[in-house]
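Hello Y.,

Per our agreement to keep a running log of every chain we model this quarter, I'm adding this entry. I've kept the format consistent with earlier entries: sequence first, then predicted structure.
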Amino acid sequence: MRNSNQNNFDQIVTSRLFAADFAQPQIQDFDFYKSKAITQIQSAIQSISSANSPLEFNSAIAQANAFINAALDYEFICLSEKAVWLDKVAHAVRSQMIEEFA
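Predicted structure for the entry above:
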């Protein structure tokens, strides 16, 4: 695939075009993405607590679970952190369903 007529720039471009991770995002700041994931989870849990209709309530629960699973899949959180977040979701659901404040 490489041609002797290619200069260094052409070789770099060609190697990137045929790389296995071509057009894939390069994660460079793990802490940044982890904080974004946690912010999304916290926002979804807050939405559970402030839901005013069954549709909003169910959507917020689905969002929270999706954000937690995505954060785990991308390894921004570990299983023990997932358990903590799921407990917070369960507490928010219980608080909203039976208006239990603790």
